[in-house]
Design goal:
Blueprint: E1 28-32, H1 36-46, E2 51-55, H2 58-66, E3 73-77, H3 85-95, H4 97-101, E4 103-107, H5 113-119, E5 125-128, H6 133-144
């Protein structure tokens, strides 16, 4: 026995909303820290809820953002030898402002005068290392809730 059915048209897939803050959607999170162990530790705290990538090179992050890659949240070490988080932020503010707006800086507390001034800017978000897991998750949800550029 066989059944012949007429061919039907599939409805076009609708794009859907861009991750509202309370949707529970997985966010795309980049962790940028020159210390691989720190990056992996932060990743482990978030990977059950979000898609997390870890980089150790600020210039690589800059190149990828300048090429059009986007993340919902960028957790960035403030002081790194190759390029500081402050320098990366300045570069991204020009090339990828939406990425720069989604940066959260992580610091171990070793502030230079320039770093202290940078962190005092009105819309600057930062957390201290070692990170508190609950605070980290809250900040990621808060920053990642708005639609990307």
């Amino acid at each position: 026995m066989s059944v012949d059915l007429p061919a039907g048209e599939r409805p076009a897939a609708s794009p859907g909303p861009e991750r509202p803050a309370d949707s529970g959607s997985r966010l795309r999170v980049l962790v940028l820290d020159d210390e691989p162990l720190v990056g992996r530790a932060v990743s482990r705290l978030l990977q059950a809820e979000h898609d997390v990538e870890v980089l150790t090179s600020p210039p690589e992050c800059a190149r990828r953002a300048e090429a059009g890659e986007r993340w919902d949240v960028v957790l960035c070490d403030l002081i790194m030898p190759e390029m500081t988080g402050m320098e990366l932020h300045a570069r991204l503010r020009e090339a990828a402002p939406g990425v720069a707006e989604r940066m959260v800086f992580m610091t171990g507390g070793a502030f230079t005068a320039a770093a202290s001034t940078f962190l005092e800017e009105p819309d600057r978000r930062w957390i201290e290392k070692p990170v508190d897991a609950a605070e980290l998750r809250r900040v990621v949800r808060e920053v990642g809730g708005a639609p990307r550029e």
